[in-house]
C-alpha cells in the first residue's frame, strides 16, 4: 500500500531499519508492518517483546559493525533472524538474567551465519531465510547441557524416543461440522497458527500479524491465511493431536512456506499459487517427520520444515518452464 510505503520512508533511518527487520519475519520489508508486529509481540508478552527487540537490534548492529551489505541491512534482512532468536530462547530455556547475555550472543551469531549462507546460496538464487535462526538456536539449546548456569525450560522436551499418538483426540467430523464449537476451534487454530511464527500463543497477536502483512501485500496476507488453513486441515485429516493443531503448531510453517512460494520468491500467478498449496501440504508432512527425527536429541523443529520445503521447491521451480522465477 502506497501510504505504508510513504510512512516507512518518513521514519528515521535507524528506527526504520530495525522495524523492517521485524517485518521481514513475514517477508514484509516495511517499517509500519514491523511496528505493528512488534506491538503485537508486546501484547502477547512483555518478555517476548523485549527479547525480540534485543535480538533485532543486536543482529542489525552486528551486521553494520562487520561491514555486511548496507542494502541488505537497510532492507531489514539482517534483523529478522535476531527477532526470532530472542523469543525462541526465552520460550525454550530457563528464564534467568544470564539468558539475556545468551540472547545477545545468539543474535550476533545469527548475523554471521546469515552472511555465510548468503555467500553459499546466492549463486543458486536461493534465500537463506530463517535457516540462520534455526541453526543458531539449535546450537545454543544443545549447548546448555554443558553449562551449570543455563538449563532448558519446561517447554523444551527432554530427549527421548518419539511415541505414536494414540488418537487424534477428536474425530475428523468434529472439525468439519457446522457447530459453533467447530467454528471456535478453527478460529483459534488459524489465528494461533499465524501467531506461532513468532512463538506467540495468542489469538489477538495472530490477527495483528495478518493485518500487518495485509498492509504490505494483500496477496501475502492471503497466502498466510491459506497456509494457516492448510496447517489445520491437513493434520486434522491425517489424525494429528488436536492439542497441537489448536495451538497452531502445525500451521506456522505452512504459513511461511505458502508466502515464500506463492508471493515472494516466484512470480505471483495462479500456477505459483497451486505450487504454494502443494508446498504447504508437504510442509506439514515434513514437520511431522522432522519432529520425530529430532526427538532423540530433544530439539524442536522451529521453522526448519519451512526452510527445507522452500529450498526443495525453489530448486525444483528453477528447473521448470512453468515456475521459474
Tell me the domain tally: 2
From the 3D structure, determine the CATH topology of the largest domain: Ammonium transporter fold
CATH class of the largest domain: Mainly Alpha
CATH superfamily of the largest domain: Ammonium transporter AmtB like domains
List keywords for this structure.
325 residues, mainly alpha, Ammonium transporter fold, 2 domains
Describe the structure.
The chain has 325 residues and is an all-alpha fold. The chain folds into 2 domains: 12-156, Ammonium transporter fold (Orthogonal Bundle); 159-325, Ammonium transporter AmtB like domains (Ammonium transporter fold). The chain has 16 helices and no strands. The two termini are 23 Å apart. The mean pLDDT is 92.
Task: Indicate the topology.
Elements: H1 2-10, H2 13-23, H3 31-44, H4 46-65, H5 70-74, H6 80-92, H7 97-121, H8 131-143, H9 172-176, H10 180-195, H11 203-216, H12 218-238, H13 242-246, H14 252-264, H15 270-294, H16 304-317
Task: Give a short overview.
Helix content is 69%, strand content 0%. With 325 residues, the protein is mostly helical.
Amino acid at each position: 500500500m502506497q501510504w505504508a510505503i510513504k510512512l516507512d520512508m518518513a521514519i528515521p533511518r535507524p528506527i526504520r531499519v530495525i522495524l523492517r527487520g521485524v517485518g521481514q519475519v513475514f517477508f514484509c520489508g516495511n517499517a509500519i508492518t514491523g511496528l505493528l508486529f512488534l506491538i503485537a509481540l508486546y501484547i502477547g508478552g512483555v518478555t517476548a517483546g523485549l527479547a525480540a527487540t534485543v535480538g533485532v537490534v543486536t543482529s542489525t548492529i552486528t551486521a553494520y559493525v562487520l561491514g555486511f551489505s548496507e542494502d541488505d541491512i537497510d532492507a531489514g534482512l539482517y534483523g529478522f533472524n535476531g527477532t526470532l532468536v530472542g523469543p525462541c530462547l526465552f520460550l525454550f530455556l530457563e528464564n534467568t538474567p544470564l539468558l539475556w547475555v545468551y540472547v545477545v550472543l545468539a543474535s550476533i551469531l545469527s548475523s554471521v551465519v546469515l552472511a555465510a549462507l548468503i555467500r553459499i546460496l546466492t549463486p543458486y538464487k536461493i534465500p537463506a531465510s530463517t535457516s540462520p535462526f534455526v541453526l543458531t538456536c539449535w546450537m545454543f539449546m544443545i549447548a546448555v547441557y554443558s553449562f551449570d548456569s543455563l538449563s532448558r525450560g519446561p517447554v523444551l522436551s527432554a530427549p527421548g524416543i518419539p511415541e505414536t499418538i494414540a488418537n487424534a483426540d477428536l474425530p475428523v467430523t468434529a472439525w468439519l461440522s457446522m457447530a459453533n464449537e467447530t467454528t471456535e476451534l478453527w478460529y483459534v487454530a488459524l489465528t494461533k497458527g499465524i501467531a506461532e511464527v513468532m512463538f506467540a500463543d495468542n489469538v489477538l497477536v495472530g490477527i495483528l500479524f495478518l493485518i500487518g502483512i495485509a498492509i504490505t501485500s494483500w496477496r501475502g496476507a492471503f497466502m498466510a491465511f491459506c497456509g494457516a488453513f492448510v496447517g489445520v486441515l491437513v493434520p486434522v485429516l491425517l489424525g494429528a493431536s488436536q492439542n497441537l493443531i489448536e495451538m497452531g503448531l502445525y500451521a506456522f510453517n505452512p504459513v511461511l512456506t505458502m508466502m515464500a512460494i506463492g508471493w515472494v520468491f516466484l512470480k505471483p500467478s495462479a500456477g505459483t499459487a497451486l505450487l504454494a498449496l502443494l508446498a504447504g501440504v508437504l510442509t506439514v508432512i515434513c514437520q511431522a517427520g522432522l519432529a520425530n527425527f529430532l526427538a532423540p536429541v530433544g530439539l524442536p523443529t522451529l521453522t526448519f520444515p519451512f526452510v527445507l520445503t522452500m529450498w526443495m521447491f525453489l530448486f525444483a521451480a528453477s528447473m521448470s518452464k512453468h515456475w521459474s522465477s
